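Researcher: Structure for this, please.
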Amino acid sequence: MSRIRANQITNQSADGAPTVQNGLVISGVTTSTTFSGSGASLTNIPSAQLTGALPAISGANLTGITQTAINNNANNRVITGSGTANTLEGESTLTYNGSTLIFADTSGDAYIQYGAHSTIANNFVLGAQGDGTFRLFNGTYASGTERLRIGSDGKIDVIGGYIARNPSDSFTLNGVNTPHYGFQLNASSTVPIAMSGYYGISFATTGVERLRIAKTTGDVTVNTGNLVIGTSGKGIDFSATYDGSNVSGVTATSELLSDYEEGTFQPLLKRLMTNNSTETSFYTQGTRAGNYTRIGDRVWITGAIYWNGGSTGSGSVILTNLPFTVNSGTANDGVPLVVGFRSGWNYRDMTGYSAGNMNRFYLAYYDSSGTYNISPGATATQGTLYFSANYELV
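Model: Predicted structure, token format:
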């Protein structure tokens, strides 16, 4: 192997770089301060050997590279495709500043469509209209069905009145239209229930107000229908009004109005045998009419009986087949029966009295000496009896 050692190599004229006609092979490291030329024949240069700053490249002669233009570009605008080759669009209505994504269209309505379903009608669209409302649609914004709206005043409107998995169970918020229902449930398509804070609390069905609790007085008004007590023994409690009595020995036992009833019954005259137990028939009674009204544990009765022919005998005449049995106790044994118009009786002055814990009144006459039961034999074969009474029932 031959070696050439020189401190300096120049061309023949000693005024430039030497020219190597057939190439120069150098083993080892070549250190150069500059390099010029096209470098077209430089090949197989390991990237690990390229160190230091690369020179500026103009790229004027680069080929195979297509330039892309961005239209309407500005700070924070989201870049989207345009449909034109090598052209992108800077969206003026969609911006992102690093923390907030802003979607705003000043020229019209702005909306976002969620098309996760293959059927367009099953997709959702969120839209903000120029009137300041925010809306939710099924389908598309242009032709879909509006489901929910938030107005510029903050009011929420559930379009169609449904907020349930099953559309037949609807829920409505509506504080605008008369009669100003502020809350409405619809258990079926025809029986809604409503409450309102406009008048106080109002309940309505089928669009008709049924009950109201007044806002200022708290009075409860039932506008239609009845107040039904659904549990036996319950009713209207007046205990808050109890004032007691200024008379000694008076004791209040209840202030609960737990029952009311009115109806008809068929009173019946019978013959009570002298054993005060056996009841038998008394004449033939073609007309038997009675009315009653019950309030709490007390009942008022009125009635009329016509008889014409039949059998009679000894014993006492009693009025029975009452709508309720007379209560027991001293205060209920001997309650008066008022006798009105009558005929077929042999006595001018007539009355009657109850038998405690029994379903009967005794018919009686009275004179200056006392009161006496009337015997069936002291009546005519044809007659009438009109009567009334009130008593405590069992």
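Researcher: Any notable elements?
Model: DSSP finds no helices and 28 strands in the chain. The longest strand covers residues 379-392.
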